[in-house]
């Protein structure tokens, strides 16, 4: 029974192969560093430095990386919460990287919504559940007040909430419940795509599983596309179809989850995977650990050549001179490394 | 093996107006010499309060150790005066906290913070303490320890700060190191470095470690024995191998099922229904019963006791009938 539904799902996905909902080309976001009395710009933090990937409709793209790799900045730049420094964001065939603020709100914001990491900070403590959920609809002038009521009931039902809670405030809910509210709020405008920035990192494991299951159910029901940003490799493996591994503002490796997790090619991906402690049963084979030396270099002054060469166990002299290109070494498996 | 630390029926309760909050409610725990014991549970299970109770760092009021014994090398820590406890803290038992960003003093250099400990506890001279501080920093893996010793904490990254914390904690050769979520705030590659360091140091100095964490991956990486807590009680205790081989308590089972795997795919994650009840509303009977898929009538009315099962113990009626209560 389960097997057939999975097959159906993957068939559907193959059919849609051609239509990309989002295309990102060489996206950059640099933050200026200002210093001195006149606040002159003395340098820049290259938080996102040349990101390119495509997202198919209905799939989940995972972005993983350590803190400071630019994954959150990437998520926010995608929906123009940050203005991109350069590059293109093509959403549904239209470049949205440089359209005006008003136009953005009229035609794009509704279709891309965001779920944030901290369920304690992302809800206004002085608003009831009802006004939190109706605010996006009011801002976008959707529905009359009666329809809005019905829509709210419907949203609460979708995320598994008791409709009686509608007049309660966020502090009356637990972390997992608040994250459900965050998801309901994102769904209020019937978006096509949701960018979820570490949606489960602040939650306990048992609650984390509930939220992940909820997100998967909603995806199937509403045909949503997710960009799922997380530092947790196992969560990303579970939810994603394709995964990009980021390091210092760049994508190091991008592949389907099967290829990436079963045969990681980039030395950074390999190190990252081996570093994750895994609950293992007795007699299970101990995995080879690759311990990376040192810390992440500062994105204000990234290393010359390949940004990873300072910590890479396989670095050659060439790595410190030339920037490796991001190339397809196998079908749909992209790596930025001189080894390939 | 001889027991280094033994908790017997430890109860730490908090008083809020007229309600009593039983944050830790009858915990039994043994840590042997040189052993690493992991204390696992979700937030609100009482694991941090247990560790703070051992250190006698519970803010009082509102908190109070109302019952039980904390035997350290045979001495009951609960009965010690504040002065006597000060001699044990840092010297025999030391602690690493979760937040490396906030647990160092920002206005003192790293050196001063290590030297302070050595001068106070080991009565070293300032010069000798400085010498030792450099040694400790080298031990935790800083190559340029001599320069680093005069730096302030803000110049270090999270992983480096956590290593400084370990250097401070290990500087008096403690017999027991309590690590409260030492790697939760760190990235995985840095976490791997820190776990390796802790393993190495505990072997070298024969230090026992009480590791508090919610990450079962970390547990299987470093611990010898695991104690699972839920709602202020121990629900299961077993060696790492036994626990991962066959978790007995439905809660442990649920915890393991809800973690997505790095090596395989499951279609859907198992999730434990509902949430951890707040301590003032603990259910009668088994505290896990409202969320338990196997709960039957007896679970809702009667509280199960922690029972010995060979080398392990479990608090569940499902495993009740075979052996008598110890």
UniProtKB/TrEMBL annotation, chain A:
It comes from the Bacteria. PANTHER family: D,D-DIPEPTIDE TRANSPORT ATP-BINDING PROTEIN DDPF-RELATED, TRANSPORT ATP-BINDING PROTEIN. Residues 22-273 form the ABC transporter domain. Belongs to the ABC transporter superfamily. Gene3D superfamilies: P-loop containing nucleotide triphosphate hydrolases. SMART domains: AAA (SM00382). Coiled coil: none annotated. InterPro entries: AAA+_ATPase, ABC_transp_ATP-bind, ABC_transporter-like_ATP-bd, ABC_transporter-like_CS, Oligopep_ABC_C, P-loop_NTPase. Keywords: ATP-binding, Nucleotide-binding, Transport. The keyword ATP-binding applies. This is Oligopeptide/dipeptide ABC transporter ATP-binding protein. One of its GO terms (molecular function) is ATP binding.
From TrEMBL, chain B:
One of its GO terms (molecular function) is ATP binding. Residues 5-256 form the ABC transporter domain. InterPro entries: AAA+_ATPase, ABC_Ni/Peptide_Import, ABC_transporter-like_ATP-bd, ABC_transporter-like_CS, Oligopep_ABC_C, P-loop_NTPase. The keyword ATP-binding applies. Keywords: ATP-binding, Cell membrane, Membrane, Nucleotide-binding, Transport. It is a peripheral membrane protein. SUPFAM superfamilies: P-loop containing nucleoside triphosphate hydrolases. Gene3D superfamilies: P-loop containing nucleotide triphosphate hydrolases (3.40.50.300). It is found in: Cell membrane. Belongs to the ABC transporter superfamily. This is Peptide/nickel transport system ATP-binding protein. The lineage of its organism: Bacteria, Bacillati, Bacillota, Bacilli, Bacillales.
């Amino acid at each position: 029974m389960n097997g057939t539904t999975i097959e159906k799902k993957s068939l559907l996905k193959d059919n849609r192969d051609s239509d990309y909902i989002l295309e990102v080309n060489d996206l950059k976001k640099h933050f200026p560093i200002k210093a001195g009395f006149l606040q002159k710009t003395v340098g820049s933090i290259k938080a996102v430095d040349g990101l390119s990937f495509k997202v198919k409709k209905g799939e989940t793209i995972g972005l993983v990386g350590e803190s400071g790799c630019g994954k959150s900045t990437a998520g926010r730049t995608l929906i123009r919460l940050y203005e991109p420094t350069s590059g293109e964001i093509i959403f549904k065939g239209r470049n949205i990287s440089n359209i005006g603020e008003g136009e953005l709100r009229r035609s794009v914001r509704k279709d891309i919504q965001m779920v944030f990491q901290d369920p304690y900070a992302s809800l206004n403590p002085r608003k009831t559940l009802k006004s939190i959920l109706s605010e996006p609809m009011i801002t976008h002038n959707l529905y009359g007040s009666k329809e809005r009521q019905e829509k709210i009931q419907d949203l609460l039902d979708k995320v598994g909430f008791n409709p009686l809670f509608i007049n309660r405030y966020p502090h009356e809910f637990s972390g997992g419940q608040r994250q459900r509210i965050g998801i309901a709020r994102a769904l209020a405008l019937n978006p096509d795509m949701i960018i979820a920035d570490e949606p489960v990192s602040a939650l306990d494991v048992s609650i984390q599983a509930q939220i992940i299951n909820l997100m998967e159910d909603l995806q199937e029901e509403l045909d949503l596309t997710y960009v799922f940003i997380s530092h947790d490799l196992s969560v990303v493996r579970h939810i994603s179809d394709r995964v990009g591994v980021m390091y210092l503002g760049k994508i190091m490796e991008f592949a389907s989850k099967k290829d990436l997790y079963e045969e990681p090619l980039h030395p950074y991906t390999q190190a990252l995977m081996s570093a994750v402690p895994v609950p293992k049963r007795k007699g299970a084979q101990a995995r080879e650990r690759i311990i990376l030396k040192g810390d992440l270099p500062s994105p204000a002054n990234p290393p010359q050549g390949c940004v990873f060469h300072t910590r890479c166990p396989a670095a050659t002299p060439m790595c410190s001179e030339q920037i490796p290109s991001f190339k397809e070494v196998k079908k749909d498996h992209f790596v930025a490394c001189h080894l390939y | 093996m001889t027991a280094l630390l033994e908790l017997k029926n430890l109860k730490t309760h908090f008083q809020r107006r007229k309600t009593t909050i039983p944050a830790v409610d009858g915990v039994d725990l043994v840590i042997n010499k040189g052993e690493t014991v992991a204390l696992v549970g979700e937030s609100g299970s009482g694991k941090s309060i247990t560790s703070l109770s051992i250190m006698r760092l519970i803010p009082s009021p509102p908190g109070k150790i109302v019952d039980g014994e904390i035997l350290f090398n045979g001495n009951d820590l609960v009965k010690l005066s504040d002065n006597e406890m000060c001699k044990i803290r840092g010297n025999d038992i030391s602690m690493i906290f979760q937040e490396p960003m906030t647990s160092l003093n920002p206005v003192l250099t790293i050196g001063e913070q290590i030297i302070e400990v050595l001068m106070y506890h080991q009565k070293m001279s300032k010069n000798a303490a400085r010498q030792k501080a450099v040694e400790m920093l080298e031990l935790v893996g800083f190559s340029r320890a001599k320069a680093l010793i005069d730096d302030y904490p803000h110049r270090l990254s999270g992983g480096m700060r956590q290593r400084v914390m370990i250097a401070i904690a290990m500087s008096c050769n403690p017999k027991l190191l309590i690590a409260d979520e030492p790697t939760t705030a760190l990235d995985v590659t840095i976490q791997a470095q820190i776990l390796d360091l802790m393993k190495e140091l505990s072997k070298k100095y024969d230090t026992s470690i009480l590791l508090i964490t919610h990450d079962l991956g970390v547990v299987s990486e470093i611990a010898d024995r695991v104690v699972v807590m839920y709602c202020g009680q121990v629900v299961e205790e077993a060696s790492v191998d036994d626990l991962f081989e066959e978790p007995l308590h439905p809660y442990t089972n649920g915890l393991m099922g809800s973690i997505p795997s790095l090596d395989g795919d499951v279609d859907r994650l198992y999730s434990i229904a509902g949430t951890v009840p707040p301590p003032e509303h603990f259910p009668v009977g088994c505290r896990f019963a409202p969320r338990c898929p196997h709960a039957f009538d007896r679970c809702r009315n009667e509280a199960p006791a922690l029972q010995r099962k060979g080398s392990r113990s479990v608090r569940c009626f499902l495993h009740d009938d075979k052996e008598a209560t110890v």
